[in-house]
Amino acid sequence: MASVPSPMKPPRGIKSTKESSGHLMSIIRTLSVSESNEQRDREKAKLEKEYAKSDQQLDELIQKHHEELSQVMQLFGQLSARITTSKDKVRSVKENLLACKTLLSCRREELKKLWLEGVEYKHVLHLLDEIEQIKDALTQVGSYLSKKHYLHATNLIVSTLALGEGDLAGVEALKELKSELNSKKQKLIDTLFDELSKYIYIDSTHEIVQLRRQGSGRDFAAASQQKISLLKQSRAKKALESSYADSSRVEDKNFLTQRVTEDISQDVEEDSAHFVAVLLECLAILNKLPDTVERLKMKMQAELFLLVGRTTEQILPTIDSMTPQFALVELLQTLIEQFRRVVSAHQTVLTVMERTARLHNCFLNVYDFNDIWSRIQSVLQSLLSDYLDIQNTSSENQPAPNSFSEQALDISSYFTKRKPQRKEKPTLFKFDFASTLPKINSFIPDQPSSEFKIKLTGDPNHREKVLICSPDPQNITVIFIPLMIFIEEIEQTVSAPCSLNVFLSNYIKGGFLRHHHNKVVNAIDVATKCSDAWRSITPPELAAQLNVSRPLLLSTVKVEQSISEIKSLMQSIPHHAQNFLSMIINILKSYREICQVAYRGIVQPESEDKSIYSVTWLKDEDITRLLKSLPNWEQLEGWWQSVSERHGHITREESIVEGPEDVQLRNEREAEILASNLGESGISQHEIISDVNQLKCLAQMQESMEWFATQIIKFVNTQSHKPSSSNHNRKNEPIPTIEINSMVPKISSQLISSLEQLANDFQELANTCLLVLHLEVRVQCFHYLLPQGAMKHVSNSHDIDPRVSNFSRVLSSIDEAMTVSLQPRKCKYIFEGLGHMIAKLLISSAQMMDKIDKPLVHRMCRNIYSLQQTLTNITMTREIALDHARHYFELFFLSPEDVLNQIVEKGPEFSELEYMNALQLIHRSQSDRPDATIQGHLQKLTDILQNTPVRRLLSSTSSLSGVAV
């Protein structure tokens, strides 16, 4: 029926002009006082007219509100009928009550007895129903439990036990049933807790394990790359947010306020959040929420250990397709993802538990995230203790005598037969930065490490380790970055320092650094303390691998490889890069001392009172400064600077442009200065390095030290530019790593400066070796070419002087040793200008001769030709300076007059001093000439050379001859 609108009340502001009764009285008065019928008729007509108008308006209103009026009349009729019916019913009830009152008063006692019997029979029937309900409860509870309808089973058990504790408490026949129900109740409590634990530690992590297992097998590489990208921190956070879906579900306001129900027609585990709510609702009904909280806290760590054990056994079948370290990273990353899911599951449980406690007015002292993360960190610490072999590492790190510090004492014995005096040298490096750290035993967790990997079945007191790879401190290199990302996530979550971070930091500083220290010490000790440590060179295969053109000392390469291992550790463990860099610096400092001792063993193999002349020259700062100021050295120095300035990329050096005249002037200048520093005393055998093998060792040391310094500079530039890190395992296979967003401590600029200084020190040692070789060849020129007594007349002019022959043989041997040991640019530096030095010495030897004749002149020319041929074979260029020396000795075929005439005709070819020595030797050789004749010839020579054009020509030569150091 359509709703009938209520009648509308006229507006309050509209009032009738006058009352209808007043109007009627007015008409009556008018008719009574009228004098004639006409007046009455007019009043009558007026009244009829008004009635007609009123009827018309009434008809219009009725027509307009006909439907509303009809509805009102219908409603009025219905209400009137209901009121009449109600009045009739009330009248009937009154009559019935009066009849009941009359009847009750007739047989009251009999009725009371019947009513009491009825109540008793009803109660007996109710008790029988309750007994039947208790009897059937066991079957129904079993059915509910088999289908995991725990809420129905809980309600049934609670209600049934409540029945048994009520009116039926004294029934002896029900005691066995109640005992079985109590047993079912305890079993239900354990089942509910097991289901809750299963949800937290198994169901929530099942997806992670399945994802990891899909990545094994033949598609392992592709799956690994996919998992590596998924483990980026930004994506890890998104994954963690998705894993909190259940938490978002339970935090919904409607979910938190509504009562938990259970639909037995649906899969109870389809909605995991609802299933958790059902479990906790059951525990709340059983008054076991506080006990559940305590049990969850107590069994948390044990469950986490079981989780580690299950994951290990699940990954073990797939390790055949990956390296052991890769398998360890796979295990760790799988566990980290599972721990995230476990935390999310705990969050879901805690949220639902707090809601359930509020609904049941139950006070709970729940655990928080700090407790969860604390247990996870403890489990990870125990896990790391086994895989990093902390127990054995701590025993290995006991202080031991540093045998490496004593190896420098025996280095010089490799270069001499004489037993050296022992001197104390600094140790390889120290751990000053770790002096205040606790011992390794102080951070070994209290939890026994034997509990971290266990069998899933069997006696829990007899657990068996199942390691995915061998325990090795080196395992930290592949798991450090994933661990630090996880630690950063923990610290951001709990807003407190992470104990796992402290554990890891203490292990690295107090255990791993010491372990690697011992490892490096042993490796370098083996490399540098063997008998041929400073003679053994790299094989061709290794030289090709190192991309070097000349062999290096194998000991130097092994030291650099040990340092490279530490460099890789700086990339693998970036948070402790500064500690590793300090270790590298201490290694380099000690190795620098060892190399300096080795250098001294080469250049001073005998007692200190017998020194090598080239080394003595090199100690003269003026000579060293002069040699380093010459263009040929600046060319070598430019190459070294190009290595330093081009960020470790070696390029071909741009040669300093020198013309032939510049080269000649430079070589003449060097020869003049070295000759002037020698003086008139000769050089004996013990003042030179006569053993070519010693020079070869020096050359190999020079090449090795320069290469070593270059490697250090490359490393310095790498640290300055901070390249992206990459990890590799022992088989050069990539280890899955993820970028870490936390701020890695910056490398101290002081340490970088120390590295640069050490690189300069090694380069300076290389420079010293090269300068010694450069000077040694020239010193041997003095030794072999300057006569230590008057040269005697020879009968056979075709024979070469034995000293010249020996010198040529020595030069060839040195060239052969230098060619295989040094780069061509260095060999060029050693032998370039040697012809000028030899020419200078041969020309200077004229003043030491008493007499000279044609056979001796022929022999000297033959000596010069032999030396020129030897040098040409070495330098592959004709030594014009030796032609100049030969021309000088050809002067002795002439008379003094012919020499002077030649100067006048062709101009001076030699200096005034050289002409004077020649004239004096010719005069001494011709005994028939008077002494006054030589003075005339010398005076005439002076007059000729004082000629202005000639003087201008000789100005450069005389200036060179006047240079003194």
Structure report:
Residues 1-22 are annotated as: Disordered. With 965 residues, this protein is mainly alpha-helical. 68% of the residues lie in helices and 0% in strands. Helix 26 packs antiparallel against helix 27 (802-821), helix 29 (834-844) packs antiparallel against helix 30 (854-875) and helix 32 packs parallel to helix 34 (931-945). It starts with 19 loop residues before the first helix and ends with a helix.
Characteristics of this structure?
965 residues
Summary, kept brief:
With 965 residues, the protein is mainly α. 68% of the residues lie in helices and 0% in strands. It has helices spanning 20-33, 37-64, 66-104, 108-146, 150-164, 175-214, 220-230, 233-243, 245-250, 253-257, 272-285, 289-315, 324-359, 369-387, 390-396, 476-494, 499-529, 540-546, 554-572, 577-603, 613-619, 621-629, 631-645, 660-678, 692-721, 749-785, 802-821, 824-831, 834-844, 854-875, 880-890, 896-906, 912-925, 931-945, 948-961.
How many DSSP helices? 35
Regions with pLDDT < 50 over 5+ consecutive residues?
216-251, 399-462, 646-655, 723-743, 789-795, 950-965
Number of strands: 0
Largest sheet: none
Query: What is the percent of helical residues?
Result: 55-70%
For the termini, the CA-CA separation is 133 Å
Sheet/helix structural class: mainly alpha
Strand content: under 5%
Average pLDDT works out at 75
Radius of gyration: 57 Å
Tell me the overall shape: elongated
